[in-house]
């Protein structure tokens, strides 16, 4: 096995080696560091080959760096996703090489909180200190924002008065946490956007992931699911996962949920690309997918884009300690949720403009398809695209 890897013939003979090892029961060998599952090797090689394509310099550096890295099936880079916070925390060789090439700052582009209107901090304090805050006057300027702030503060104050939350009890499970704590935050984000954004909490199946890689993908259901509905296409714009309640945080579950929503965001962007890639008005860099990840008592706000096509980038807007305990700082959550919502509104504007232009297009694409030129166009469009890596489900050995 080591010899085939050294001579770069592992992919050619990998299936034979793998089958022999399994038939002989050499399971320990298959789990050693010298063993890379065949699918991982093949996937790595496809990404490595991007360095020879006409792609962005950042993509080229990543492609050149991959041969030096040992990857597992859960690494998002196998799906072409640059998980910026993880690359930083793990001090990834990718980050090191991008820094050396003076490209890392572009990848790690910070997402700044939007400035808040004057009077927000005083308004929050007034909401907290006024016993009958239903009498609080809403400022006319930026009225929608102040209504959302008041509603969110009211929801958090109810938690402050609830002894079950002040000393968290085991009966605050994932479902209860989602309903009482996270829903008010999502309502803040979704307020006045109901005509364009449908938020669901019923673990609906993602159609984008079901059609992963243009084929039959896995069934994935999300705890929070926000869909932009229009006459042409339903874009899965917001995906969220609740990794248990506040008392049951586990590294494994949290990591798996992060991978799940990261791949789901890519699937969503891929699905709309497949539908509209032939449109002259389509620009994948104008679209973003928005992720919410609750684990322990924290809430992460994440944003995925395709700025460096064919790769995807996942950045963190903020990681906020949810202010459900009495006396907590509410302002940071309000700033994060306000910025998150504003970026969603920006994306919705881009979607509206895109659909408006699309309606005015003629049927040239269909005519090209009938003339036989479409296959060549498809081939050109697909060069350099990265498939979402389906993590294999390990089968249990007999007797285990």
Write the layout of secondary structure elements.
Elements: H1 2-6, H2 10-23, H3 27-30, H4 38-48, H5 57-65, E1 81-83, H6 84-89, H7 93-100, H8 104-107, H9 120-129, H10 143-160, H11 163-166, H12 174-190, E2 197-200, H13 207-210, E3 224-228, E4 235-243, H14 251-276, E5 288-295, E6 298-305, E7 312-321, H15 331-359, H16 364-371, H17 374-382
Parallel strand pairs: 1-7, 4-5
Antiparallel strand pairs: 2-3, 3-4, 5-6, 6-7
Helix pairs in contact: 5-7, 9-10, 10-12, 12-15
List the keywords:
disordered C terminus; 17 helices; alpha/beta; globular
Description of the molecule:
Residues 359-400 are annotated as: Disordered. Residues 363-383 have a biased composition (Acidic residues). By secondary structure, the protein is α/β, with parallel strands linked by helices. It has a domain at 120-359. It is built from 17 helices and seven strands. The protein has helices at residues 2-6, 10-23, 27-30, 38-48, 57-65, 84-89, 93-100, 104-107, 120-129, 143-160, 163-166, 174-190, 207-210, 251-276, 331-359, 364-371, 374-382; strands at 81-83, 197-200, 224-228, 235-243, 288-295, 298-305, 312-321. The chain has a seven-stranded mixed β-sheet with strand order 1-7-6-5-4-3-2, with helices on both faces. Helix 9 (120-129) runs parallel beside helix 10 (143-160). Residues 369-383 and 394-400 have low confidence and may be disordered.
């Amino acid at each position: 096995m080591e010899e085939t890897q050294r001579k770069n013939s592992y992919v050619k003979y990998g299936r034979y080696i793998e089958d022999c090892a399994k038939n002989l029961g050499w399971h320990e060998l298959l789990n050693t560091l010298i063993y890379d599952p065949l699918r991982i090797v093949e996937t790595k090689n496809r990404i490595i080959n991007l360095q020879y394509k006409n792609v962005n310099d950042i993509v080229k550096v990543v492609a050149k760096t991959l041969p030096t890295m040992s990857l597992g099936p859960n690494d998002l880079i196998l799906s072409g996703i640059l998980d910026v916070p993880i690359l930083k925390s793990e001090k990834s060789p990718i980050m090191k090489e991008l820094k050396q090439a003076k490209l890392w700052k572009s990848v790690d582009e910070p997402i700044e909180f939007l400035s808040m209107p004057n009077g927000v901090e005083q308004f929050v304090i007034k909401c907290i200190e006024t016993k009958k805050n239903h009498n609080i006057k809403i400022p006319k300027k930026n009225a929608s924002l102040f209504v959302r702030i008041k509603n969110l503060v009211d929801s958090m104050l109810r938690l402050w008065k609830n002894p079950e939350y002040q000393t968290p009890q085991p009966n605050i499970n994932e479902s209860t946490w989602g309903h009482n704590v996270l829903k008010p935050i999502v309502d803040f984000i979704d307020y006045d956007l109901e005509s364009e954004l449908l938020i669901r909490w019923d673990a609906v199946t993602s159609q984008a992931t079901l059609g992963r890689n243009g084929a039959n993908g896995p069934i994935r259901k999300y705890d929070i699911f926000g869909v932009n509905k229009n006459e042409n296409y339903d874009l899965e714009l917001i995906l969220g996962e609740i990794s248990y309640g506040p008392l049951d945080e586990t590294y494994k579950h949290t990591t798996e949920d992060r991978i799940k929503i990261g791949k789901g965001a890519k699937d969503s962007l891929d699905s709309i690309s497949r539908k509209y890639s032939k449109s002259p008005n389509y620009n994948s860099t104008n679209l973003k997918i928005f992720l919410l990840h609750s684990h322990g008592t924290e809430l992460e706000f994440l944003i995925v884009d395709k700025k460096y096509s064919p790769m995807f980038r996942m950045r963190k807007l903020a990681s906020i300690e949810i202010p459900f305990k009495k006396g907590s700082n509410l302002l940071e959550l309000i700033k994060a949720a306000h910025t998150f919502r504003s970026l969603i509104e920006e994306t919705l504007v881009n979607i509206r403009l895109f659909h408006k232009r699309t309606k005015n297009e003629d049927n040239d694409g269909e005519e090209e398809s009938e003339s036989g030129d479409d296959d060549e166009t498809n081939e050109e469009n697909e060069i350099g695209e990265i498939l979402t890596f389906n993590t294999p489900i390990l089968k249990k050995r007999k007797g285990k």
